[in-house]
Design brief:
single chain, 255 residues, alpha/beta, nine-stranded mixed β-sheet, 26% helix, binds manganese (II) ion
């Protein structure tokens, strides 16, 4: 019999998060599920890594481990220390809050999946696109097919998917759309207020954000009631920029 699949689950909302619990429970039958997640919430930690302070691993029992660091720390410790073989898949989430458009750059949820990808592991980041109360068990059920599909993919290289689920009942979800990253428009980026002692303070991201983008984006899919799946890659090269620079180089003469 083939060895059971090894599934690594992590997140950035912390090991106590409801989205993490719901995800891990919903895929329990797909293989050996290990949870390695930050002890404390690390949202918007992006891809930060702890290099100048010690990291602790706390055994929470039942293949669950808390790490005193970031999502990236969790993936590195899981792969190089906690697990005794390479995971067949890494799933990060389910995050409480959307991770679409440029927000994937700040996201600890997406960073954990990206770290998995860099280590050669097929990886999925999953978020529910709402900051309100979320039915995470329904959301987890709605995307169960995605890790199943990813583990069956016969691809010469690992894949990395960023998934956003609309925060509606599972039966109201219209389906899945393959999308590209959209573009967010922030209003009132910095909110300025006075503290009780009359001193100014500032709050980043206070306004209600909007988005401007085409029909083929993550934002458009989620607002139309679809699960959005965006394949990502860490190559930030601007290929059109290369062509532009090449034209300039042809014209350029050393003096
Ligand atoms: Mn989060």
């Amino acid at each position: 019999m083939a060895e059971k699949k090894l599934i690594l689950v992590t997140n950035d909302d912390g090991i106590q998060a409801d989205g993490l619990r719901a995800l891990a429970e919903s895929i329990e039958d797909l293989g050996d599920v290990f949870v390695v997640a930050p002890e404390l919430e690390q949202s918007a930690s992006s891809h930060s890594i702890t290099l100048d302070s010690p990291l602790r691993i706390n055994d929470h029992g039942r293949r669950r481990f808390g790490v005193s660091g970031t999502p990236t720390d969790c993936v590195l410790l899981a792969v190089h220390r906690i697990l005794d073989r390479r995971p067949d898949i890494l799933i990060s989430g389910i995050n409480h809050g959307p991770n679409m458009g440029e927000d994937v750059i700040y996201s600890g949820t997406v960073a954990a999946a990206l770290e998995g990808y860099i280590l050669g592991i097929p990886s999925i980041a999953i978020s529910v696109a709402s900051w309100d109360r979320v039915a995470f068990d329904e959301a987890a059920e709605a995307v169960r097919e995605l890790p199943i599909r990813m583990m069956k993919l016969e691809s010469p290289r690992p894949n990395l998917w960023n998934v956003n689920i609309p925060s509606i009942l599972k039966r109201d979800i219209k389906g899945i759309r393959i999308t590209k990253l959209g573009s967010r428009v922030y209003n009132d980026v910095i909110v300025e207020k006075k503290d009780p002692r009359g001193k100014d303070y500032f709050w980043i991201g206070g306004g209600e954000p909007g988005w401007s983008s085409g029909n083929d984006t993550d934002f458009a899919a989620v607002s139309a009631g679809y699960i959005s799946v965006t394949p990502l890659r860490p190559d930030m090269t601007d290929y059109e920029g290369i062509e532009l620079l090449k034209e300039w180089i042809v014209e350029w003469q050393p003096r």
